[in-house]
């Protein structure tokens, strides 16, 4: 874990500073209210800065960064309340195209996996994309195509914070696709899940920061709220759960990066990360709003931006129950003799 922690800490501070400057300036003039669409102007700015394809290889037109730097990018977007499909475009859709050697142009993309009837629900940012990387089962294999959105049926929807989460359907019998392995589709599943865990952890950190700031500055009965033991307990529980979720997520990320997404226990590590992040969100949301009271739900205060985001993201690419069950199955499969070997790094 020491090496992985240092790798995460080695993200170029100048990159982080630049990202923070871009997102901070944007957030000041674009408060996230109501339904959210992909901002074409911001998209172009990020493209010009080399941030849209941050993790893509240089030979495919990307910036050649790794997942630690991409995680820093999407974390900064969460921290500043900027809603934009960076992960879906770069870390998922374009990665999949690059993995099969398909050409990648400048179109904004997302990705979805259709069922055998050709349907997918809660597809992120589909209604605002220009192309969708579509994967579907074909007997014992999978097929994939980089589809123009006009060739698909898209019914708009949103999640709890107004981000597009749309229904996508296609006549898979008329689609022509490239064969992709089940292993690659499983990688897509784990990458998608880990992206959401990173985002939830970023939201938890912001919830903690806002709660601490409020409790330190708000005076009640002649002293700051932070001096009351009950408030201290609420905040310490948020901090504990956020730290646990972050540690589990960083462990999964390190295992993924160091093994090029091939670690034998990677599925278990991702499941633990998602389980921890999901349960941490319950504690952070409850305690944060309890500490702030009604002000935390108002438009003027930013707490609800992060609490609603944490609740929305923890249920995407697999519910909390789903990931709990994956952890349970792995533990039962290992048995008492193999349990320590399963959890030890």
UniProtKB/TrEMBL annotation:
Amino-acid biosynthesis as UniProt keyword: no
Organism field: [Mycobacterium] holstebronense
Keywords: FAD, Flavoprotein, Oxidoreductase
Source species, domain of life: Bacteria
The protein's required cofactors: FAD
Entry-linked InterPro entries: AcylCo_DH-like_C, AcylCo_DH/oxidase_C, AcylCoA_DH/ox_N_sf, AcylCoA_DH/oxidase_NM_dom_sf
PANTHER family xrefs: ACYL-COA DEHYDROGENASE (PTHR43884), ACYL-COA DEHYDROGENASE FADE28 (PTHR43884:SF20)
Limits of the Acyl-CoA dehydrogenase/oxidase C-terminal domain: 197-316
Protein name: Acyl-CoA dehydrogenase family protein
Family the entry assigns: Belongs to the acyl-CoA dehydrogenase family.
């Amino acid at each position: 874990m020491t090496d992985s922690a240092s790798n995460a800490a080695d993200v170029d501070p100048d990159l982080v500073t630049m990202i923070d400057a871009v997102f901070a300036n944007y957030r000041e003039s674009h408060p996230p209210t109501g339904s959210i669409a992909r901002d074409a102007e911001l998209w172009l700015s990020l493209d010009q800065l080399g941030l849209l394809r941050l993790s893509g290889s240089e030979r495919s037109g990307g910036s050649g960064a790794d997942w630690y730097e991409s995680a820093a990018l999407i974390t900064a977007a969460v921290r500043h309340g900027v809603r934009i499909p960076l992960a879906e475009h770069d870390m998922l859709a374009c990665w999949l195209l690059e993995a099969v050697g398909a050409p990648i142009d400048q179109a904004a993309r997302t990705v979805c996996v259709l069922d055998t009837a050709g349907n997918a629900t809660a597809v992120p940012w589909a209604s605002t994309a220009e192309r969708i990387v579509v994967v579907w089962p074909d007997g014992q294999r999978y097929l994939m195509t980089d589809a123009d959105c006009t060739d698909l049926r898209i019914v708009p929807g949103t999640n709890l914070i107004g981000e597009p989460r749309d229904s996508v359907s296609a006549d898979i019998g008329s689609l022509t696709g490239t064969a992709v392995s089940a292993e690659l589709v499983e990688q897509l599943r784990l990458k998608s899940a880990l992206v959401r865990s990173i985002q939830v952890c970023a939201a938890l950190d912001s919830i903690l920061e806002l709660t601490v700031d409020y409790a330190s500055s708000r005076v009640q009965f002649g002293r700051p709220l932070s001096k009351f033991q009950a408030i201290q307990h609420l905040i310490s529980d948020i901090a504990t759960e956020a730290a646990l979720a972050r540690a589990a997520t960083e462990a999964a990320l390190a295992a993924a990066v160091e093994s090029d997404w091939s670690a034998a226990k990677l599925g278990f590590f991702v499941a633990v990360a998602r389980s921890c992040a999901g349960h941490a969100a319950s504690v952070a949301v409850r305690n944060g709003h309890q500490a702030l009271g009604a002000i935390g739900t108002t438009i003027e205060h930013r707490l609800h931006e992060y609490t609603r985001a944490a609740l929305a993201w923890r249920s995407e690419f697999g519910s909390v129950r789903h990931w709990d069950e994956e952890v349970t199955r792995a533990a039962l499969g290992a048995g008492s003799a193999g349990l320590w070997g399963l959890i030890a790094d």
